[in-house]
Amino acid sequence: MKQKTKNTNYDLMSKNLNNWKGIFYVNPKDPRIIVPKMNPSLGWTLNFGNVYAYLGLIAIILIIIAFQYFV
After folding, report:
1. Any idea what DSSP says for residue 47?
2. pLDDT, tens digit, 9 for 90 and up, residues 24-55
3. Of 57, 64, 67, 70, which is most buried, counting CB atoms within 10 Å of its CB?
4. pLDDT digits (tens, 9 = 90+) for 15-27
5. Residue 24: left if φ>0, alpha if ψ -120 to 50, beta else—which one?
6. 32-36-37-40 Cα dihedral, nearest 10 degrees
């Protein structure tokens, strides 16, 4: 029961317009790295209030650059 309440709170966080800066979701209180967009049919986005989102994005960019030079 507690897990369902926690997920509901996270869903409410991602639907709150105050947590969206244009097309970017920024909420340091939300522990999720990947969150659904306002319109669920548009997919998912990163939570730029979470440091791990930046680390993941940098890792993906470095992998792409490495493949360009080493393959």
Report:
1. B
2. 999 999 999 999 998 889 999 999 999 999 99
3. 57
4. 999 999 999 999 9
5. beta
6. -170
Residue 43 gets the label, from left (phi > 0), alpha (psi -120 to 50) or beta, of left
Helix ranges (DSSP H) in the chain: 2-15, 51-70
CA 10 – CA 16 distance, rounded (Å): 10
- Look at residue 55 and give its three-state secondary structure: helix
Residue carrying the six token digits 């306002």: 38
- Bridge partner list, 35: 45
Q: Which token pair is 16?
A: 């709150």
Tokens of 32: 């999720």
Which tokens hold the place of 45?
Answer: 């986005």
Predicted model pTM? 0.79
